[in-house]
C-alpha cells in the first residue's frame, strides 16, 4: 500500500501543481533563456516557464515524511536530491534574472555538488550496508570497493547529475529517459525489499509522468537545472543505495552517450579544428540532420529502455539489498 501511495502522491501532487505553477512563473517572467548558438528552431522557446523540476520534487516532501519518515536512508536520499535541486534552482534564477545563459560558475557548482555527494555517501556507507559489496554483471561475485567506495560513489553521483543536465535539451527528453531509469531502480528496490529507495523512486516516477503532461512538445514548462540536476542525483543516489554503481552506465546509457558526444566534440575541435557532430549534445546533431524533435525524443527514449532492459538481462541478483 505504501508503494502504491508513493506513485499516487507523486502523480497527483505534480499534476495539481502544474496549473498553479505555470501561470505564476509566467507572471513572474521566469522563463528559459535560449542560447544564441543553439538550433534556430529553439529560439521560439525563449521565455517558456522554467523551474518545472518543482513539480516532481514537491511530492517528495509529502511522500517521504508520510510513508517512510523514520528511515535515515530515505531522508539522506531526499537531502541529496533536494540539495541538487536547490543548486539547480539557484542556477536557473541566475540565468533568468541576470540573463546569463550559463548560470552559476563551474567552480561554484562543482564545490556544492561534491559537498552534497560526500554527505550522502557517508550516510549511505554508514547505514546502507556498504560491506555487502557492489553488484557485478552475469551473477559474478560482488566486488567490495573498500577505500574506493567513497570516491567512486561520489563520482557516480557527480557524473549522473551532470549527464542528465546535458541531456535536458528537448521537450520531454530528460524527463522520459529519467523516468525509465528510475523505474528500473524502483523495480530493483521492490524486489530486494529496500523500502526507502522504492518509495523515493516511485514518487519521482509518478511525478515525472505528471510532469510530462506539461513538458511534452510543445512544452508548457521546462524542468531547468532544478529538475535535471536533482534527477541525476536521484539516479546516482539510487545506484549507491542499491549497490549498482558499476551498472549505472548501462542503466543510464543514454545519458552516457549524450555526455560522450560533448566530450568528443570538444576534444576533436581543440585537437583538429574540426567538429564530428553538427552540434552537441547528440540530440542537436539529429535535429540539424532534419529529424523532428518528437522523433529524436522517441528514438532516445527507446535507447533508454534498451539500457534498462540490458541491465535486467544481466540478471542482477537483487537479493543483495
Walk me through what this model shows.
The chain is mainly alpha-helical and 321 residues long. The chain has one domain. The protein contains 12 helices and no strands. The chain has helices spanning 2-28, 53-68, 72-97, 106-127, 149-167, 173-192, 195-215, 224-241, 248-251, 253-272, 282-288, 293-313. α2 packs antiparallel against α3 and α5 runs antiparallel to α8 (224-241). The protein is globular, with a radius of gyration of 19 Å. 49% of the residues are buried. The mean pLDDT is 91.
General form: globular
Given as residue ranges, the uncertain stretches (5+ residues, pLDDT < 50) are none
- Distance N terminus to C terminus? 21 Å
Please count the helical segments: 12
Mean pLDDT: 91
Query: Roughly what percent helix?
Result: 55-70%
Total number of beta strands = 0
> How many distinct domains?
1
Query: What is the string of helix and strand elements?
Result: HHHHHHHHHHHH
- Beta-strand share of residues: under 5%
Mind describing the biggest β-sheet? none
Rg (C-alpha, Å): 19 Å
Considering the chains and any ligands shown, give keywords for the structure.
321 residues; 0% strand; single chain; 12 helices; mainly alpha
